[in-house]
Design a protein that fits this description.
Blueprint: E1 24-28, E2 31-38, E3 56-58, E4 71-76, E5 82-85, H1 86-90, E6 95-102, H2 121-124, E7 127-136, H3 137-144, E8 152-157, E9 164-168, H4 169-174, E10 177-182, E11 185-186, E12 196-198, E13 211-217, E14 232-233, E15 239-240, E16 249-254, E17 265-274, E18 280-286, E19 294-295, E20 297-298, E21 308-316, E22 321-329, H5 338-345, E23 358-361, E24 367-370
Parallel strand pairs: 4-13
Antiparallel strand pairs: 1-2, 2-3, 4-5, 6-7, 7-10, 8-9, 8-13, 10-11, 10-12, 14-15, 16-17, 17-21, 18-19, 18-22, 20-21, 22-23, 23-24
Length: about 375
């Protein structure tokens, strides 16, 4: 209190003492621009993920795009093909939506025979939640004059992978956003600057980054990420395709693996729940491996297709325990036990893992991931 502090800056940075809240990166050593980074959800609170910690999935690096030259072209089965510059889009009436984005491959280590031992965010952190602001895609489709025979939109990004994928017109008209802002500031390059799509509640591969092309068509394009990838082989030999919706899911962020309960007494159990079907209606927590359940308090606001923070006070007596949470959404869908999910879907799907997660508490207060 007797020494003047450091000068302030044009753009704030985290404290130098907070070095553990970082994304964990897994990149292809042969192609460093291809890989993923997990959001450290076990180090965060509330429901909003800071921009610098939002999860990422890259196919061929982060493009350096000049917004003065970038354009979004809308063509195909429309009456008036149209091209928008970034400044053109910025003049349109905008809306904001707080929603989660979750990679279809999030939590896929849960399919493994043995439970993965890693901090919770580096297991379930291919999901993040932000306030996205931009122009409803329905507005732009109205400007272009979408023809009745158009059933799909083919979206393509301007990265070196030319990422493209098919979107049903119904979803495009419902709540899809051509986003320009994330959490109040312009979208950062790694999250799609200057323009990206946001499809609330659907797998994040559809929320194409660096968006530059939308083609209205009668049929899907059958791109790599909707044929060879993001399809799920079932036990009967058939494959699920176009499984866009992300089902209800939850997990406990605190305490979780990497933490240690230091002494017996009162602790807070806290975590995140979400559903692509709408609002979370209830989250139940068990401290005895699922023999009994208690309803957790849900932190306001409880929004549709958005992270919901749940909390429950818990008194630990020092004995071995297994902590679990399960989410129920407003449609009545309930997050399944792992054995139920595997019985229904087998182990060959890789995507859309949303089973109940179990953390074992040992007598020394350490936590580990178990199948229970």
């Amino acid at each position: 209190m007797h020494t003047p502090g450091a000068p302030f800056s044009n753009y704030g940075q985290p404290s130098t003492h907070e070095k553990e809240a970082i994304r964990w990166i897994s990149a292809n050593s042969g192609a460093p621009g291809n890989g993923i980074s997990w959001s450290p959800l076990h180090k965060l609170e509330g429901i909003i993920t800071p921009n610098g910690l939002h999860f990422e999935r890259h196919h061929n690096g982060v493009p350096a795009i000049d917004p003065e030259r970038h354009r979004l072209r809308l063509h195909g089965l429309v009456r008036n093909p149209i091209s928008f510059g970034v400044d053109d889009l910025l003049r349109y009436p905008m809306v904001s939506r707080i929603c989660f984005l979750e990679c279809g491959g999030n939590s896929n280590a849960g399919w493994h025979e043995e439970p993965i031992q890693t901090p919770a965010g580096y297991f379930h952190g291919l999901a993040s939640c932000s306030e996205w602001t931009g122009v409803p895609l329905s507005t732009l489709l109205d400007e272009a004059g979408l023809l009745p025979e158009a059933r799909w939109l083919i979206a393509e990004g301007a990265d070196a992978a030319a990422m493209n994928i098919s979107i049903p017109v119904e979803k495009a008209l419902e709540d899809t956003l051509v986003a320009l802002y994330q959490n109040g500031e312009r979208i950062r390059p790694e999250n799609g600057y200057p323009i990206r799509l946001i499809l609330p509640g659907w797998e994040a591969v559809l929320s194409v980054k660096w968006l530059h092309l939308l083609q209205a068509a009668k049929e899907p394009v059958m791109a790599r990420n909707e044929t060879a990838k993001y399809t799920e082989l079932q036990p009967d030999g058939k494959a699920r395709q176009f499984t866009f919706l992300m089902d209800a899911k939850s997990f406990i962020t605190h305490p979780s693996p990497g933490y240690r309960l230091r002494g017996t007494g009162l602790f807070q159990i806290s975590g995140l729940a979400w559903s692509g079907r709408g609002k979370i209606r209830k989250v139940e927590v068990s401290a005895d491996g699922g023999q009994s359940w208690a309803e957790a308090a849900l932190q306001e606001p409880i929004l549709s297709k958005c992270f919901t923070r749940f909390r429950l006070p818990w008194r630990w007596d020092g004995s071995p325990r297994v902590l679990k949470s399960r989410a129920i959404d407003e449609t009545g869908y309930q997050q399944p036990e792992r054995a139920t999910l595997i019985a229904e879907r087998g182990r060959n799907g890789y995507f859309h893992y949303n089973a109940i997660v179990s953390w074992a508490v040992a007598t020394d207060g350490s936590l580990s991931h178990v199948y229970a």
